[in-house]
Amino acid sequence: MDRIKITGGAPLHGVIPISGAKNAALPLMIASLLSEDVLTLTNVPRLADVALLARILGNHGLDVTIAGKRPGELELTGQTVRLDARSIVDTTAPYELVSRMRASFWVLGPLLARMGHARVSLPGGCAIGTRPVDFLLMAMERLGAKIEIENGYAVAEAKNGLKGAEIDFPKVTVGGTHVALMAATLAEGTTVIHNAAREPEIVDVADCLIKMGAKIKGAGTSTIEISGVSRLQGAHHRVISDRIEAGTYAMCVAMAGGDVMLEGAQPELFENALDVLREAGAEIAATNEGIRVRRNGHGIDPVAVTTEPFPGFPTDLQAQLMGLMTKAKGKSRITETIFENRFMHVQELARLGAHIHLDGQTAIVEGVSTLKGAPVMATDLRASVSLVIAGLAAQGDTVVNRVYHLDRGFESLERKLAACGAQIERISGEG
Ligand SMILES: CC(=O)N[C@H]1[C@@H](OP(=O)(O)OP(=O)(O)OC[C@H]2O[C@@H](n3ccc(=O)[nH]c3=O)[C@H](O)[C@@H]2O)O[C@H](CO)[C@@H](O)[C@@H]1O
Ligand SMILES: C=C(OP(=O)(O)O)C(=O)O
């Protein structure tokens, strides 16, 4: 099992290319199931989740080819993924695969819409929370599907096809919005999604579906209207830049100090997080190339932040912000409202000397002047990188174990940081 070793104290200077967004690439790949033609995606990040989803889609009969960047290349070229869904041979998504990646449950919507049936393993919970799928199932039932839970599988039928309907989500759900949006493109008549998620990744998927011939209005607002069409064609689409990866590296620079250009980062995708970083004392400037982040001399100021659906502060940057605030000049308050158990990093940050007290869903972080390196354990994707952020400013060596969590969502992390002067290396093998 790989580990990452960081020797803290080096400031960061240089350029970090920002990859395509994992959370857009995954639903875009799944959307290919809707088309009786070829969908070609560019700027797809080289990540474990992308490779696993390619396998899952291959299992349904898609011909998936991935070309482009070689491992270790840091240029902004991304990978090109060609998905040919002309023939779907299997509408079952098995437990062994779905349990390894939650987003693969989203194949339910496109399979039902195109094939009239689907049998998809329930994904189960994960480290950050129980993460039920009741809203996704409700949305498919609203579109006319009959769903039974059998032996851990959602078995869904829509013998006469899906029918447009009003879908009102009781709570904002990214996955629910993706699934409803994708399924409604091939449903007969009009679907209106109320209380839809407004995340940029929803807009990216809608943009691609429109290129494929779908009729969609309002993506990016909380009401999305879809007029169903009988078939979707192929398309070429470039995946948007990863706002969570960009926000993470911005926090690395805020923690370590220095001056870094986040090449290809799009500030309009995470204004709220950039404002929080400014409040914390980082200098942020949008340029034609991306976002320049600097912190020289000025210490880190504490902040009070609550996670919210877009356009609020993203839960996917909560752990990283907490890593940064461990060295702030005072007391920060970080409240998590999206997932009930997304504080697994607290105990690991404490191993580096952080002072964090939990009060229900709020973490009170008392900044300390010195963190000290230690062996720590990654518990989930974003928690793992919060430990890297803390390690960048800790005295001595921090070794992050269970790096496979990090590899789900951060392409070439150690290379990107090392190219800017961080003392960081991957240690391959057992241990
Ligand atoms: C691959 C991907 O894009 N993952 C993102 C997606 O996850 P995901 O789509 O799973 O997250 P949701 O937006 O659906 O979850 C939001 C909240 O709704 C609850 N809920 C959701 C569905 C449901 O059927 N029932 C229910 O109760 C969840 O438990 C959670 O409390 O959005 C999250 C919130 O921005 C991000 O942290 C994840 O990185
Ligand atoms: C929680 C995340 O991903 P997933 O929904 O795939 O678990 C994430 O990207 O931070």
TrEMBL record:
Modified residues (2-(S-cysteinyl)pyruvic acid O-phosphothioketal): C126
SUPFAM superfamilies: EPT/RTPC-like
Record flagged with keyword Transmembrane helix: no
Positions annotated to bind phosphoenolpyruvate: K22, N23
GO biological process: cell division; cell wall organization; peptidoglycan biosynthetic process; regulation of cell shape; UDP-N-acetylgalactosamine biosynthetic process
Residues engaged in binding UDP-N-acetyl-alpha-D-glucosamine: R102, D316, I338
Superkingdom assignment: Bacteria
GO molecular-function term, one example from the UniProt record: UDP-N-acetylglucosamine 1-carboxyvinyltransferase activity
Localization: Cytoplasm
Keyword Repeat on entry: no
CC terms in the record's Gene Ontology section: cytoplasm
Active site (UniProt): C126
Keywords, ordered alphabetically: Cell cycle, Cell division, Cell shape, Cell wall biogenesis/degradation, Cytoplasm, Peptidoglycan synthesis, Pyruvate, Transferase
Major location (coarse): cytoplasm
Function: Cell wall formation. Adds enolpyruvyl to UDP-N-acetylglucosamine.
PANTHER family: UDP-N-ACETYLGLUCOSAMINE 1-CARBOXYVINYLTRANSFERASE
Identification of the protein by name: UDP-N-acetylglucosamine 1-carboxyvinyltransferase
Species this protein is from: Labrys okinawensis
